[in-house]
Write a structure and sequence with these properties.
The chain has 154 residues and is mainly alpha-helical. The protein folds into 2 domains: 31 residues; 113 residues, Winged helix-like DNA-binding domain superfamily/Winged helix DNA-binding domain (Arc Repressor Mutant, subunit A), CATH 1.10.10.10. Helix content is 71%, strand content 8%. It has 7 helices and 3 strands, in the order ααβααββααα. Strands 1-3-2 form a 3-stranded antiparallel sheet. Strand 2 and strand 3 form a beta hairpin. Helix 2 crosses helix 5 and helix 3 packs across helix 4. It starts with a helix and ends with a helix. The relative contact order is 0.08.
Length: 154
């Protein structure tokens, strides 16, 4: 098989993986009444603890206006509260409600269970090669800024 064919086949598998993971995540999030963007915010909040909206916007790489809409939706859904920051009157502090904390913890348990399902039966050497290869692919995507087009090649 020619390199171009091998590379295209590998990219095809990555794209299929992306589609399958996206479908699975969307179904899981919908079960809790979440969009992927709102679930991402919950995940970040779970990693960081109570945070300002500004810090969450930076973590999600979205605008202040966008983070306000995401937090509004999560407040309305009973996942988070929005309070004045204890030390900075200009900032808004976002933290979990009890329900939001439970959902975030379940997301973590689901991720652990899913990772075991995908990788537990893979031999160590194969798994290590997979992780190394994915790391290289991700590094190249980050270097390219995810914006490469045929025109930019010229």
């Amino acid at each position: 098989m020619k390199d171009a064919d091998r590379f295209n086949a590998a990219l095809g598998q990555i794209l299929e993986l992306v589609v399958l993971l996206n479908e699975d995540m969307s179904k899981s999030f919908a079960r809790d009444g979440l969009t992927s963007a709102r679930a991402h915010l919950l995940w970040e909040l779970g990693q960081r603890g109570p945070s300002t909206q500004r810090d969450l916007a930076e973590a999600l790489n979205v605008s202040a206006r966008n983070i306000t809409g995401l937090v509004d939706g999560l407040v309305a859904g009973g996942f988070v509260t929005r309070e004045p920051h204890p030390k900075d009157r200009r900032a808004t502090h976002v933290s979990f409600t009890e329900h939001g904390q439970e959902v975030a913890e379940q997301m973590g348990r689901d991720q652990q269970e899913f990772s075991r399902l995908l990788f537990a039966s893979m031999p160590d050497k194969q798994f290590d090669c997979f992780v190394k290869g994915m790391g290289e692919v991700l590094a190249r995507l980050r270097e390219a800024g995810l914006t490469w087009t045929h025109e930019e090649e010229k």
